[in-house]
Hints:
The chain is α+β, with helices and mostly antiparallel strands.
Amino acid sequence: MAKKPVKEAGTALIFATAFFVLTTIAFGVLWYTEMSNSTAKDAAVEAAKKDKTAAEGVLADAKLDGSVYRLYWGIADEDDVKQVSSWGEKEKKRAGETIKKINQLVVEKVGKGDASKVPQEVGYWKVDDKGVPELPPPPDTPLNAVAALATARDVAKADLEKSAAVFEAAASSSKAREQEYITITKKFEELVKALPANFDSRLQGEFKKIEDRMKAFATEQAEFRAQNSTLTDKLSQQNFDKQRLERQIQNQQEQIENLLARLQTNRNEDTFLNDQPHGKILRRLPDDIVEINIGSDALVRPGLTFTVLPQDFPEKGRQSRMQVVREPDERGVYRSVERFVEKANIEVIEVLGPNLSRARITKEYDRIRDGAGPGDLIYNAAWRKGAADHIALIGVFDANGDGSDDIESVIRDLNKMGIPVDAFYDLRTRKWVGQITQQTRFVVEGWYPVQGAFDPNRDEKTKMIGDITAAVEAARKLGITPVKFQDFFPRIGYRMKIDTTPDKINQAIAPYLNRVSTEETLPTPKGGN
Length: 529
């Protein structure tokens, strides 16, 4: 009796153990099932993300292809145009592949597989060897070409309608002649019935007339067809010539506007603003001889002259050499004059090598304080290395201030220096001697006549000034720059007296007037002795 509770306790333990095991198994199965479901869900989510990424890529490619198609055919909106500038290498490659496919389809559909048969008006969007399209897209699109072809078709249709009207008028005339022929035939049949047999000869004559008229009618028909074809061809050719001439007129108008703009710009600019030094002085030798660093390679030759300026002239500019100097007039009275002052003028006397020449100082303004020396720059406004600007001369050129026109000697000196003088204005005939060409760059103006209040030659001088001014203006319209000799000659190192008295100028001009005295007739003072 004492062991019965032990048996019941063992049974309960067994049941508890079995319940625990079964519960553990059940929870394990549930946990495994839940973990499997979670893993499957995670895999599904990852797969969905990949599908979304792929779908977004497909969508982006589709949007890019849509933009390319719209840009290619000329129906793009602002967003398409903006997206082009943000394309990366990937987008450019994708766009290049799409454009190649479109170009191939255009060749197959329009040119039947032959690119040479595609009309020139149908523009291609070019793709380079790396598959990158030309950016920005070309403005000429296939739709533009279709519009142009439609316009050409309408023009051709209108021309065809005009030709058809001409043809209808001719056909109407032909019908009238045919009706006339029928009427004549009927009359002929009536004559045949009415005439006796002895009128056979007249009958043959009528037959001959009818045959002639039929031949003439056939000839006129052939001529009309030929004329109609010729007129149609002429009309087409005239339309083509009209379009070509309109394009030429437009191009010439643009050229005229550009030339006028350039001419106006040239008028407002300093002519010598962009002067550049041709070389520099290497060293100074005794007897006012210097060596410069240009020679035979630059086609330098003896007689060529240069102006010498300091090393810092390009930085400081023309204003740095403007000085107020005291100069006497013809009566010995000194006056203050502001003038551009060079350091010196030099003339080449010997070419020593490809990059070496020897020159003589012909004029030096201040040998002690501002003399020419090593490092100084040399200039010539009308000469380029290996060539020189062509010029023309107009006015009076009194080189030494002695009251005579030295234009002939000036021309000889300039030619000797290698500066071609294309023409000069003859004050006797009031015409150009020589010819101003497209190579002529400067018209150098000399002295003009000086008028006085009591000048007996006032009218003649006024006419001469008008003639000179008109000649200068005509040269200006040809794009040739007028310059004063006071600015030009110092820049090429040519020695010429810059200041000349009015009396000397009038004395030099006198031979070109009507032999009237150049002295002014002064009035007699009232009440004087």
